[in-house]
Amino acid sequence: MERIRFCSKCNSYTLQKICKNCGSETEINAPQKYSKDETVAYYRRKIKKEYLDKHESN
Question: CATH number of the domain that 40 lies in?
């Protein structure tokens, strides 16, 4: 099964290993599975905030 991949160079999503927009290698980018117990919610929110802050500044 294919997994969604992310190109950090041009900020696009694809299923390919090589980005069709810029030609750079893509990374697997899948969110953590949700659980109603949510034992790692603090870390998930912290990582998401850091990611958004990093990409908004560009």
Answer: 2.20.28
Q: How far apart are CA 35 and CA 16, in angstroms?
A: 29
pLDDT tens digits, one per residue of 36-47: 666 777 887 888
CB 21 within 8 A of CB 10: yes
User: Contact 14/28 with Cβ under 8 angstroms?
Assistant: no
Listed residue (40, 13, 43) closest to 28, CA to CA: 13
pTM confidence score:
0.49
Range of the domain at 45: 5-56
Q: What is the count of structural domains for the chain?
A: 1
Using DSSP's 3-state secondary structure scheme, residue 39 falls into: coil
